[in-house]
Amino acid sequence: MRLKLDLHDIFNRGTSIDKALNDIMDEAERKRAKTIEIIPGKGSGQLKKRVLRFLDRKDVKARYHRVEKDSKNFGRLFVHFKH
After folding, report:
1. How many whole angstroms from its chain centre is CA 39?
2. Which of 17, 43, 50, 52 sits a CA distance of 20 to 30 A from 23?
3. Pairwise CA distance, residues 59 & 13, whole Å
4. What is the pTM of this model?
5. Does residue 83 carry a pLDDT above 80?
């Protein structure tokens, strides 16, 4: 199972971004999803950096197995879980 989070609609609302990321992580754990596809978009790269900083937090890092940057699409990340 793969979950998908597109951040295009909330790119300029900081608290909404963190809430959306927390919600998708909770959902992945609840549904035991193997992967989350996060789409910050290409843009200037600031949103992607923000997502990576969120994923790098110690409390969040403990929840997933690894992060993969899509080599073919700069505007997409995959978060992999080991349940």
Report:
1. 7
2. 43
3. 22
4. 0.89
5. no
CA-to-CA distance for 30 and 51, rounded, in angstroms? 21
Say if CB 8 and CB 39 are below 8 A apart. yes
pLDDT of residue 81: 95
Nearest in space to 25 (alpha carbons), one of 15, 14, 17, 36 = 36
49 and 12 Cβ atoms separated by less than 8 Å? no
Q: Any idea which residue has 């609302």 for tokens?
A: 13
pLDDT in tens, 6-62: 998 887 777 789 999 999 999 999 999 999 999 998 888 889 999 999 999 999 999
Helix (H) or strand (E) holding 19: helix 14-31
